[in-house]
Amino acid sequence: MKMSDSTEPARRRKTGRPLSFDRDVALERAMLTFWRHGYETTSISDLTAAMGITAPSIYTAFGDKKRLFLEAAARYAGDPQVMADRIAGAATAYDAACAMLTTAAAAFTRDDTPRGCLLASATASGSPASADVQQAIAGIRTAIGRQLTARIERDVTAGLMPVDTDAAAVAGLVIAVIQGMSVLARDGAEPAVIAAIARTALDAWPAP
User: Fold this and answer.
1) 16 three-class SS
2) Amino acid 126: pLDDT
3) Is 189 helix (H, G, I), strand (E, B) or coil?
4) Phi and psi for 110 in degrees, rounded to 5?
5) Does domain 78-203 have CATH number 1.10.357.10?
């Protein structure tokens, strides 16, 4: 996601006019608002109320609503290189998957943030109006799936997993379980239930 290109006009507009608010704090509040209500149903009015700034300030600092959401989603997802390094650097592919599932289970059921995953819930409606946003979010998931696939393939080559393991399918299963846990967390499932789902998915891990 190249946020630099999409926000260049905003940079030009605010030249010589320093922001009168904390941009990071405002972005965090926007992220939580999108996470709670979804991309399409979150209005500019919702965002101004949550961020404590005016609509013109949003447009000046972030561009439009779509650009603001994409930046908020990038903040939520974190540095993609950090995730890639964690997956590649895990002792085994199982350890990488375990970290992904258990971290997600805990994050989706915290008391101080909305339930579920922002990336899963914010674009769940599937409306054509948000197709490009959905594509960007899908790209984040696809990249993570490919990284886990590559890590699984290394273990297959090393004899740590069966030679006939379908690496892409196993990685896809992990991603699918994470997305499913997000839905159940949004539905109100207890943290213990979500954690048990993560453990059960790991029990299905192919053994050599």
Assistant:
1) coil
2) 60
3) coil
4) -70, 155
5) yes
Same CATH fold assignment for domains 3-76 and 78-203:
no
Amino acid at 88: A
The whole-number mean pLDDT for each consecutive block of 10 residues of the chain, a chain of 208 residues, reads: 37 51 94 92 95 94 93 93 96 98 97 93 66 89 96 97 97 96 96 98 92
pLDDT at 21: 85
Q: Which token pair is 145? A: 């799936």
Q: How far apart are CA 31 and CA 75, in angstroms?
A: 8
Q: In this structure, which long-range contacts are made by residues 127-136, counting pairs with CB atoms below 8 Å and at least 24 apart in sequence?
A: 127/40, 129/40, 130/39, 130/40, 132/66, 133/39, 133/66, 133/69, 133/70, 136/1, 136/70, 136/73
Query: What is the C-alpha separation between 66 and 48, in angstroms, rounded?
Result: 15
- pLDDT for the residue 72: 95
Sole residue written with tokens 């989603």: 73
In sequence order, the 6+-apart residues with CB closer than 8 A to the CB of 101 are: 174, 177, 178, 181, 198, 201, 202
Residue 127, pLDDT score: 64
Residue 95: predicted pLDDT: 98
Domain ranges (residues) in the chain: 3-76, 78-203
Distance CA 69, CA 152 (A): 32
The per-residue pLDDT for 129 is 61
The fold of the 3-76 domain, in CATH, is Arc Repressor Mutant, subunit A (1.10.10)
Q: What is the pTM of this model?
A: 0.83
